[in-house]
């Protein structure tokens, strides 16, 4: 249970980190969407951070395969299945961690829920590698969004390892282009300082967290439903389902809680003959529904739990306390990859809600 | 669409603020749960804030009626329907607001989605009064939780109108008892200062936001599912579906994003023969699943959008800019009622996930 | 669990036969649908069979109330809740049946699932009276179908107590008008003979079953989804969820199983510039999806299990065999009311699928 | 949309007949279930009918691969993905059928719903080959049923091409063993006559339909939910989602519609200290829920629509009437493979409902 997301545009993922493959099935894709395999490859490529060997020393392409749902470059309206083959993983250093849950990791939770049957190698199902399937589904979702309702989604980091960007005046395009840098930050000075932090943190065998932001171009009104299925609620679920996410705030978020109504309310004005918000402090929804403004929210990611320092745990076979030191491959920060997953989940939620709202037909006319 | 919540324990709400009634149907309640009508009444009573006339000058009891699913004081296993009748509402001052959406309110979103068919009186379906149905469902959920797996849920405010509590050492019981005070804060000095802020804010015709916290007693392991249906994700969705919620953070939340792994990771220790977290910075879940620790998160609520100051909007019939000043009844802050709704939603999510995890049987043995 | 139906157009029902009320909440109704309360009353009236006192000696109007979702005669796009109040039921003769399950009834199943907590009076949740909620939801669904995509649904009996109609040449209009007769059969002679059978069966304290047919006007293509959510599959679920339904067949149904492909296949021809089926032996779908033809299926209903003859059962308290004779009110055949419920469920499924297929917008333009 | 089945035990399928692979993802499998790959192979093998070359001249093994969710022979509790690779299909003779929908096939429906984007080769997504994924999921479901609640499911044909079995006294074991014969019928004489019919029908280039039956060993009480999610309703949906299914009847089915209550009601008796049905005319459920009896139902399958006789259709590009004669590989009857799919779907529904009812824990203790 738990690996199916969405109501109409449905994403199903599978795969363990050290199993043969990670995969995704997407049911509910409209027919007639042009699918460019190289775009999927590029989206997967953004996870590689080849300019920043600290994050991914090997920088290898992912090998993926579309198994169904696409014919002659266009979606058929049937489920699209994509498999991303896992490279041969070295699981040796996981042997000593069997039944010794790593602090901050999912190991303990899987043991308590599934008993001895869980796969702990490389984090198993809870590995960050799981987000590969989200990225693929996100690429399909982005194609639908762009072709059907001309909406785009982007993301960047606004803080990493304590280094925050110092600009607030960036555009959507600035955010998109930030991915050409070693780290996706709109402020070059912040990139330099954050890289330094990462380098020093790796030296110490430690890890850092970060804060990312997702934003979109203008979303047509009507996405999101009253009461429980608010767009904000489904975005929160989608993003908080990412392994390292620990907080989310829309628009000015926690800052709004300290404002007065007269400061917080976005005034409604007329622009190009349409009612619009003068500001967008609320982040793009009212009453849980999109209103023609861009969606905007921030996500906090905790530091990678795997570190090379000794940590206390319990040997679950002997039921006694012990100490472990992780020796396998690890990311000094999950935030750069995790914000990509948040961007993908945002695209997925937007397609699902646009379809629920009847804004995307079952066949995209070409 | 949007008024159904949950997968196995399903909550369905209906009703407009100025319609005949607000109601809730709860499908999936186990049989054999003792239902005390006076408990439902008391839970609804917590919304009244009778000690604080600024929040609710009238302080009247809600009149509710159980229509199905309960026989001789016990649940039957069939849907429980409860209706809360609306008092005769005075809708007159809403006439002048028809097609003039109030800034910060859902009016504009409803107009853009549903055209002229939306009910704007008292906020219609988007009124804060909608949470009455959540409170009733939460009361049923709390009875199930307590009787089936001995879990309790509580909430309080940690900040209101900029006044924060100064204690961090409070217990679950302190939080429960905070509801005996004029405002549910564990710090008496904060209560006094926050009341002052509310009084002054009302004088100015303005409003304030706040931050609340929800916490539970120890939750048995295994609630929540891998990948998308993480307990954290479903709690985030549940809570972010509350009208004024703009942010949520679990455990130390955004503070974790600024820590190193060695600071953030909760060490695993042996306590009473069970693996436990030495600290609970993460807020009670790992890999998205409960692990035997209490669940803990904070929610940011924006200030009430209705204020008595003039605000800019657009007359949607004439499509021209105009100004409105709200003259109806309003809450100077929605946070005290909203955190109650968050508490209720937490109970609902916990029951739903405990049932999904097979931890609650279909008949509670007595 | 089990009282929620549909994915986008969602129907939720509640209520026990001898409780205060039966009710329904419909979430997902588009905005702008004209709702005529007298139409709901007439649809409920069809259940009364006032011309046939054997089926309903009292012939009283149902008293119903719309609690939400309708403003000034039009749907708002929010959930519509309707309550039908139960008259004061006489439960006395049920006292002797407590823990003595009636053969053919749901009593035994409820006891085995919910223990002593089930409500057996009048059949409780499993009473035929439960279909009142389906009829109300069906009336709303019919309004949506008619106003949004100009589709109509009708039903009639083709066999009752062994008396079959002898015509096959009836039109949709004939079927609609059959409800003006004592029994909804298109063949007057069959009506007379079936009434005789009912009268004689009542004299003997026995009951009879019957077969009904549901048919529609032309349904636009595209309702139904490949593989699991075929229109035929969802109709089968919807109809087989009616208490006394024991079989369903589409088009020629079981007769098709004895044909050759060359006899069974509907040839595809051009009519008015559109590809159409020359015949409609298959009942209106191909590959599980509507193709522009009317939908057509038959349903078998078992005889009413309540009879006034002694029957064998087990006293579940003493765990010993015993005999019971039912003395309460009973319907000599459930088929006439059950086919109405099947008609209602068909309308509900068609709306749900038309919305999934994007054929019904969220606001019906007027 | 449409390729996800189930609420808790969820089956997702994908794949086109002439694409690279057919696949299935099963989410919600409990942990600790022993998975024997050779059992999956044998279940797939039952589709081959190697003793009856008319049904499958090539009789080749399917090549399948488990990609996730199984470790060291046991389920992990995470999604199980299985891929069955398609052999290189010869699509040439489909070229002439492009935009010329075959009567009785899904082609026309796909065109009307998805436009020119559908894959018609080999029936595309609507091919009978789609059931390969159901068989794999059914094999997993059978393993869960057997290991968790000791329930088994079997199926056979009771009529094929007009040849009916003449026995009614067969046992569950007889039904299981019928699969060792050329055709799965419990009556050897019927097998001989049915084979003759198939041979002659092939000679004529025509096809035949049939009727199958699914039955189970005793199912524990409590599967199925009141009102909409009756076990019978979900089984009907599951089975009617199979391509060639046109009717279903439970227990005595349509025969019950012609009986009186006194003939139809199963009397309740005491057997081994438990209340049981004396007969099982109703097919194993009351009020939609299992009661400790075996489940039993029959399914009608229409004849294969592909035949080698000329048939009328419309050329959708030229929008003119034309004639086609199918020249590709075809099954003279789909019934033998289709009843296998019905058996698999039954196992899937039973696991889903047993999990909803809390009868199957999240970890199978070993």
Automatic annotation (TrEMBL), chains A, B, C, D:
Cofactor(s) of this protein: FMNH2
Keywords in alphabetical order:
Amino-acid biosynthesis, Aromatic amino acid biosynthesis, FAD, Flavoprotein, FMN, Lyase, NADP
Quote the cofactor binding remark: Reduced FMN (FMNH(2)).
A GO BP term here is: amino acid biosynthetic process
The superkingdom listed in its UniProt entry is Archaea
Reaction(s) catalysed by this chain, per the record, are: 5-O-(1-carboxyvinyl)-3-phosphoshikimate = chorismate + phosphate
Instruction: Specify the pathway.
Output: Metabolic intermediate biosynthesis; chorismate biosynthesis; chorismate from D-erythrose 4-phosphate and phosphoenolpyruvate: step 7/7
- Residues recorded as binding FMN, renumbered to this chain, are 125-127, 287, 302-306, 329
What does the entry list as the binding residues for NADP(+)?
47
Broad enzyme group: lyase
- Pfam families assigned to the protein according to its UniProt record, in alphabetical order: Chorismate_synt
Q: Which InterPro entries match?
A: Chorismate_synth, Chorismate_synth_AroC_sf, Chorismate_synthase_CS
Q: Which GO molecular-function terms appear in the entry?
A: chorismate synthase activity; FMN binding
Q: What EC number(s) are associated with this protein in UniProt?
A: 4.2.3.5
Entry GO CC: cytosol
The protein's matches in PANTHER family, at most eight in alphabetical order, are given as: CHORISMATE SYNTHASE
This molecule's function is given as: This reaction introduces a second double bond into the aromatic ring system.
The entry assigns this protein to a family as follows: Belongs to the chorismate synthase family.
Annotated HAMAP family = Chorismate_synth
Name of the protein: Chorismate synthase
- The record's gene field reads aroC
